[in-house]
């Protein structure tokens, strides 16, 4: 069918590309992607593909792209998902708990996922690079004018903000709601409004690097990472390290976390992302077990230091024909390995709604509201889960404070609490959420048609002037 509306997406990351592929898979809706960088790329290294994410990838044809690249697939069956190893001591550490899932997952380099998504982009998708949104305004005909920092403009009927934690679409949307007097009550105070519009420091600093597996093997041939069947989480008081192989085992994705509980919500002083000597990481983990020291020794001379910023728990993510997806609405910590998966779920549900034959231009605001109802509370819950997991890894929250290392009952309760928070990854599939959304869309369309019929009857019954 012919769709009589245009979609513009600000941002060219995983959520934007997934939305474009979904629209192309299920419709002929024209879509323009406006990316601030000079090319479509990605930031970061590894991610985990869990059951729910894999279901989306299969429906979009990415399983075939995986086969072309000789990449393995997740599958049904008991699987070791995460190994928690107590490591903040000089002697050899011990495995404290193992999270076992009912569906396997696979590690994937972000660049691989982006390349696969790009290979599935439809002809109806046009990419514009070096286009950073400054703001947007709504016209009287319900279209939108997009203003970019280079002075250029564009128009669209539907605007999607996939522009990350510093989202210009989010900022412009809430400013517009404020001007119209349509802000929800819990955003009326200046402090609450600022938190909704501007990203907040989580109090977490993470040091990222990719380690050559061969280099680590030469330094530490018996390192437990080589025999681990799942990502290894080296845990300790106030800090933890996640490490696991990617790129067919040739690289190890390395993330070292340092948490300042008092820093949460405060303004971060300095650059959010910068390079720093590896000695900074070595100093943080002095006194940790030998295999961690070998891992740190394998780092290159410079690592990437990130001040992790997150979004506030937004009460809404749509306004008229504008919607937010991915990090623009729920930027989260990495502790649940869920950021990319949640972004893809946003994009898939929204893409199916916009692709549907019932979604005419006049129905778009209702379709976006359904997207919000289906996705926002779920994503906000995952944000909270991720935060809780980070605190539990570092013994700042939950049934075990990490003090008594011989208290096996408390350690078991701690591990089980972590398991319970991981379970969402392998329960249900997004297609079930889409079916719920489709029923809602049908109900809305029927209501809309009945209203139109009643209005038409009333109009015909009125006397002609």
Automatic annotation (TrEMBL):
InterPro entries: FAD-bd (IPR002938), FAD/NAD-bd_sf (IPR036188), FAD_monoxygenase (IPR051104). It comes from Rhodocollybia butyracea. The keyword Nucleus does not apply. This is FAD/NAD-P-binding domain-containing protein. Residues 6-183, 320-384 form the FAD-binding domain. The keyword Oxidoreductase applies. Keywords: FAD, Flavoprotein, Oxidoreductase. Pfam families: FAD_binding_3. GO terms for biological process: secondary metabolite biosynthetic process. The lineage of its organism: Eukaryota, Fungi, Dikarya, Basidiomycota, Agaricomycotina. GO terms for molecular function: FAD binding; oxidoreductase activity.
